Amino acid sequence: MARDDLFVSSQSPHQRTFDGVPFPAVLSPNPASPILTITDFAEAIQAEKASLESLIKSSGAVLFRGFPVHTAADFNQTVEAFGYEELPYVGGAAPRSNVVGRVFTANESPPDQKIPFHHEMAQVAEFPSKLFFFCEQEPKSGGETPIVLSHHIYNKMKEKYPDFVEKLEEHVLIYIRVLGEGDDPSSPIGRGWHSTFMTKDKAVAEERAARLGMKIEWIPEGARTIMGPIPAVKFDKSRNRKIWFNSMVAAYTGWSDSRNDPTKAVKFGDGSLLPADVVNDCLNILEEECVAIPWKQGDVLLIDNWAVLHSRRSFEPPRRVLASLCK
To answer: Which one of 4, 38, 130, 309 counts the least CB within 10 Å of its CB?
Structure first.
């Protein structure tokens, strides 16, 4: 637990408890030792790095609420204070824009669209270990970023659909996505191949895709990317448990636009189709087991990507949530 003179544990009515541990952990400033500036906050993070690391390992996610984080630059300083190495957003599907430093917009898809549960960049070989989100402007309504413990979902799915999970572990998954040349802001997966691979050179794109374990087929619409076979279940060595580490539900229910049919966006590694009823029930289980704390301006949410899946609910604008990815 972070030291009492810098951080204090808070509670939210939306929190849940799993195995006796609050999820997510919520930290606020101690009124007796106020953190008045962003520099104070950054120094407090650095001073308490070990205890914060212990907290993120036990809880899987930490919400920092009530701290002096007001701007994208403040958020960038907050992320820097943790000392994690930045992960470039290469191979991800969401349209994003760089704001400042290592800070990007979160998925810029339209507000009426939900973004289904996923581990960040689970469909590529190199993915972040930590994610930060920052609420610069809270929505009028909706717009939560629900989170759910991955090992808990694995256990639920294993109990309810043992044959499906056995096949999933044996045959793993393949993800298929068609990318246009430029970004399509109307689509939740509208990132074009130019920005996905940070180049306009097809040869360079192929090289960068190969480093991610991805193949590219050039088609009239742009590029068809094929990722996998890639595991859908991983083993979290630090916590000694299996996790539901995939974007199966997100791809099957959300990778939909003029170029992509979501029911064909993800398949078993042997090429066979996923059973629609099981995938849709997995979505129900994710929703039932998740925690969705409404955003407040200034909130910073730190997620361990090895432990937690996240999503986004539709919302009434305005809403501005920024993100940063870490190795």
So the answer is: 4
